[in-house]
Amino acid sequence: MKYEIGNCYEEASSAIALAGYRCDIELPDLEPGALKNATLVHGIPRHALSGVRYGHAWIEFGDRVYHPSNDGWVNHIPREVYYRVGHIDEDETVRYEGDRKVRRMLVEHEHYGPWHEHPDDVLFGPGHDTDEVGGVIPEHNELPTGNGKEVPDEKSK
Asked: Which residues pair with 24 in a beta bridge?
């Protein structure tokens, strides 16, 4: 079975990190800049037909999921449905709340994600590894950084 590699980590993290700036993505059911308060989620869905587990990133805003795909954004999926259809285990997700936290993680890791340890059986596209620099972001070091709510700083562990 052939798997198409997507750019979900880049799309999801950029959408939150750049919310409110001139390159803010437009989602029809959200006000411009609303994604500043959204949550970036890195998780591990299981492919329905093959059973293959793969790394994925999406955005949660309230009880809705915004899913980046190679064809654009799939909007307004109820969170409960998204997790059930994707066979996503809540314990295998990492959440990054708000634009400041996402920008800080982008600068700190110098790639779009994932930014956490993951099981060995999970597939990722080329360059998506916690030990290598993947899709390097252009000069975003000048963006302000701040403290997130969910993921502690490595130094404070």
From this structure: none
